Amino acid sequence: MQFNHFDIDVFLRDFWQKKPLLIRNPWKSWHNPLDPDELAGLACESEVESRLVTQVRETWQLEHGPFAEARFGQLGNKAWTLLVQAVDHHVPDVAALIEPFRFVPNWRIDDVMVSYATDQGGVGPHFDQYDVFLVQGLGQRRWQVGAHCDQATVLLPNEDLRLLAKFEATDEWVLDPGDILYVPPGVAHNGVAVGDNCMTYSIGFRAPSRGELIADWCDDLVADMQDDDRYTDPDLRMQDNPGEISATAITQLHAMITKKMLDRDAFARWFGQYNSTPKYPDADWRPEEPIQIEAVCEFIAGNLPLCRNPASRFSFIRQHANAVLLFVDGQCFECRGETIAFAEQLCSRDRIEIGLKLGKSDFAVALIATLFNQGSVAFVSED
């Protein structure tokens, strides 16, 4: 799917992380990529994260999946919403929804959550800590947006749903199929289905907090530190007051910490691996039988395209003109020479053609075999 009319430069300049924007059907040709029954089927699978929100007047209740198929028939006339996370990992047509939004770097993209709601169904007024594009897929939904929220905003006593105790709408729109509402981080919003068969695709973006980055970066550093790497003071001088922690000692102690934490190259390598770790790292996408080098060469010779697993994460960091670090599903691969262009293409496209020249590179072939065997890529026949 592609946009027919949408000014990316204007959007990034005037709206991205600044204010909400209603985008009336910008698609070349919109069609709903997923049937409601298929969504319900995914919610019944144990490896798929799903939630069910039911509403009676101003009270919302949350259930976590997987759900028995009979559960949906037991809901009666209640207003309810089914939410299924990371549907793009399982449905290629849903994964294709991400493509037009790649003006935001891939490392910031999280997943596509899909919701289905009956008439008046919703999850209540709330705010998110990340950017989101809300694409109306089927039916209609009334969206309201309100004020900017933060950690001090008062919430209702429901930790699972984190609903706002007070919500006042500043704008309101009814979205039809193909319409998109962009909501920046922290902006209060509330969506309510208008009629049955309401489906919305939420394309969310990752926004690591400062606390998360510091905690995980420090955990990685500490794991490699030696116990005998300790404070020393061979030039110690007698102090007037032995109870004082001197400025010299504080400077040296502080340097012990910052010297490690300010290593930019080490941080870049760590972040590439941290950020490319799959959303669901316990999911096993490996093939039943590992591929051998000879088979990789045969596929390349046969001009079979290489396709990325929609559940995998790819990114790269340029070290210098002659080397890039390729990160795939938490693993780091140093690429040089002819494999640099391959690594860059692999991070920018879901499907690439591998030239015969690259197929003669032992490193490139070995890299493809490794990525295939960890379930990150696959050769796909045109048939």
Describe the structure.
- The chain is of the alpha+beta class and 383 residues long.
- The chain folds into three domains: 8-205, Cupin (Jelly Rolls, Sandwich); 210-226 and 247-262, no CATH class; 293-379, 3-Layer(aba) Sandwich (Malonyl-Coenzyme A Acyl Carrier Protein, domain 2), CATH 3.40.366.
- Helix content is 24%, strand content 27%.
- The chain is built from nine helices and 15 strands.
- It has helices at 8-14, 36-43, 92-95, 210-223, 247-261, 264-276, 293-301, 339-348, 362-373, and strands at 21-23, 50-56, 59-64, 79-84, 109-117, 132-148, 171-175, 180-183, 187-205, 306-308, 314-320, 323-328, 331-336, 351-352, 377-379.
- The strands form three sheets. Strands 1, 2, 3, 4, 5, 6, 7, 8 and 9 form a nine-stranded antiparallel sheet that branches.
- A hairpin with a 2-residue loop joins β2 (50-56) and β3 (59-64).
- The longest helix is centred in the middle third of the chain and has 15 residues, at 247-261.
- It is globular.
User: Please, how many helices?
Assistant: 9
Kindly state the mean pLDDT as a whole number? Answer: 94
Following the backbone from N to C, one meets helices and strands in this order, namely: HEHEEEHEEEEEHHHHEEEEHEHE
Distance between the termini: 22 Å
Name its key features.
383 residues; alpha+beta; Jelly Rolls; Malonyl-Coenzyme A Acyl Carrier Protein, domain 2; nine-stranded antiparallel beta sheet; three-stranded antiparallel beta sheet; globular
